[in-house]
Structure formats: C-alpha cells, structure tokens
Amino acid sequence: MKTVWRNTIITWLAGLAACIVIGLVIGQLLGVLLLYVLGSLYWQLYQLYQFHNWLRHSGRAAPPEASGIWGEVFDAVYRLHKKQRKSKRRMRQALTRIESSTTALKEGVIMADNQGNLEWWNNSAAHFLGLMRPVDRGQVITNIVRSPEFFRYFSQKRFGEPLVIKSPAKDGVYLEIQTTLYDKNDHLIFVRDVTRLHLLEQMRKDFVANASHELKTPLTVIKGYLETLDMFKDSLPKSMQKGIVNMSEQSERMEQLIEDLLLLSRLESNDKREENQWHKVSDLVKTITNATTPILTDKHTLVLDIPVEARLYGSYKELYSAFSNLIFNAIKYSPDGGEIAIKWESSEFNGVFSVKDSGLGIEPRYIPRLTERFFRVDKGRGSKTGGTGLGLAIVKHVLLHHDAKLQIRSQPGFGSTFSCHFPANRTRNDTIPAIAFNTDDTPPTDQ
Ligand code: ADP
Q: Which domain of life is it from (predicted)?
C-alpha cells in the first residue's frame, strides 16, 4: 500500500514538474498549472463516480479497471465484499441447520418476547400446546395455554423450578415447562413430555399414602396392647419392663412417622387442601409454643418478638406444621440452657418468620440437603431426638404452597437461623379482622 501511495505521489509530482517546464517554455505557467490541477480533479472525480456506480450495483461484479491508488481501493473493497458474502452464506446455512434441528427436536421450543408474545416455535411445541401458525404468532402465551398454574408461573416469573401441567391440546399428556430469560428479558421456553415420569411419581405418592394409611390400624392395635401391658408393668420381671418402655417409645416414633408421611402426601397431592385465610401470626405461634411445654422442661428459653398486628395469608394447619417443625427442631438441636428467638419482621417487600437458636449448628455442606426426606446430619442423633427426618421436607412443601422460600443460615457450634420469606401480598400489618377469602391461592386485595 505504501508503495502505491509513493508511486501515486511521485507520478503526480512528475506531472506537475513537466507542466512547470512546459509552462515556462511556452510562457504560460499559470495557465498550464491550472489545466493540470483541473485535469487531476476531473480524473479523481471520474474514479469516484466509477466507484460509486459499481457500489450501487451491489459490487458483485468485478470492479472497473483502475490504476494506482484507485485500483487498490477497488480491489480492497471487492475483497471485503466477497468475504462478507461468504460469511453471510455460512451464517445462513448455520441458521437453517439450527432451525431444522430444533424442528426435529422431541422437546418443544418456544421463543416469546419480554411480554410473552409468541415469536417462534418448533413443531413439537405446536403439537404439545396446540399452537397454530400463523394465527398464534404475536399472541400472548397465557391466552393460548389456559391454565391457572401456568398463568401464575408466567406472570409471577417463577422460573426457578420447572412447572408440570396437563397438555391443553393432548388428553392424558403431562408437560414440564422450563423457562429461561435471555437478551432483553425475552422468554425461551422448553416443553417436555413427562407423562411417564408423572405417572410413576403419582404411583410412588399413592403407594406411600396407602402404605402409611394401612399401617395406622395395626399400629393402633399394638399401641392399645402396649398401654394395657404398661398398666401391669410393675408385676412383670425387670427385663420385660424395659422391653415394654422401649416398645412404647418406638411405637410413638412410628406413629409420628406415619403422621408425617401422610401429611407430606397430602401436601404433595394438592387436592383436599384447606382454604387460605388471614391469620394472626402471634396467635399461631403462641399455640405452638404452648404445645412445646412438655419438651421444654425449663431447659430452654423462648424469646418471642412477634408484632400483634402481623397477619399472614395461608392455610392454618400447614403453617402450624411448618412453624412448629422449625421451633421443635430449634429446641431439639440446642443444648440445655439455650435461647431460642422466634421473630416476625415485615417490610413493603415481604414478611419473614424466623427461628434462631444457639445450638449445635450445621456444617455448610449439609445445608442444601436438609429438606430432603429422611436426611439427617447425624444419623445416630435421629433416634435420640425422636425426629423422623421429614420435618424440613414438610416445611419446604408448605412454603412452596405459600409462595415462600426457606433460608437457612448456620455455623457449627454457634447455632442456626431458619427463616421463611413470604411475599408481600400474603402479609399485612393491621388490626382489621380476617375477611373473606377466595378459593384460589391469591389473597384478597382489599387490604
Ligand atoms: P428431624 O426429624 O431429624 O429433626 P428434620 O427434617 O426436621 O428431621 O431435620 C433434618 C436434619 O436437619 C436433622 O436431623 C438435623 O440434623 C438438622 N437440623 C434441623 N434443624 C436443626 C437445628 N435447628 N439445628 C441443628 N440441626 C438441625
């Protein structure tokens, strides 16, 4: 490039020198110089015209013949054009391949803008959800997938967990919906047929519920006989007395286990759910703490900090189970003399119920697993504390029903804080008596 520039300048200067010589010879220096400058200008303009003309006609054909710097410019632009066309072709091919592979996917893929207006979907998504091209393009997805769960999931952007719904287009088909936000909060939605998994899961739930229910009757009979034996315990040999005490303790544990399993099944099944209502948090917690008296035996101090006006919208029984599990755990896993702080705090964003103990604490690696069924940090401790290993699984399910989240903070040796974060629309701070409630999960809006 440098050489071309040098040659161009040298040629132009040589021309200028020649003009000066000719001008001096014929005695018309100014006239000859003016002619030379005008000639040069005309030449440049002509090349520019050629260049513009070639570009206007898409620049696909070979560039016009030109020498010097203009020839270089033409060639460089032509090469750039060729390169661009090539990468455009490659991109178009890649796009076609992506489109045809997503079309062939068994999973449904949907692209919707940040308002949920449908932009693109593959054949599987059309099949699962009954989407039709082109009529449904631009429609809001919640107008097409008409399910209350899906509406809540989509409008409240609960994309952390996948949602399972019945297919609106195919009878007996269950779909798992997973949504990711991308770019300017646009929606990328994956739809998967999970009918087989759903039926298996249903079978598992039914089995646990039925087995637990069936175990209740024989256990009641065993407990009845044990109670009778307990009355005549003193007349029996020492070794048998110990056996009876042991059997009574274990049957109590088994009864608690069955109760917890049945409660979990009810929470999972979603039907037969108690209707939601506004409850005074302080009353609910007082009922629980009164029930703790037999296990407290003055060894622990409970410190309550719950404003009387705090109210929470939900199912009384479920909230009772969740809060009591947290409070009983705090007592169970705190050494004698420990203090347990039970608190309710609310802001314009949420309401937080927390139980803080100064007990054993939990190692960070165990925290993510605490809400798994039958998970215990110390396997041996379960039988001593009388726990079933289901308490925190129950808490998790109850909170899920109340759009709430469980937060666990703990430090081994220093204690733990379990907090339940409820959304603002489920909490209020006033003395208005509990008012009418709807049948779905949404709290009345007149507070
Ligand atoms: P469990 O019936 O065994 O108490 P949970 O599901 O309620 O079952 O709790 C699971 C495990 O989490 C417990 O076995 C215990 O190891 C641990 N855990 C729960 N709460 C606390 C707490 N407040 N302090 C220390 N560990 C706890």
A: Bacteria
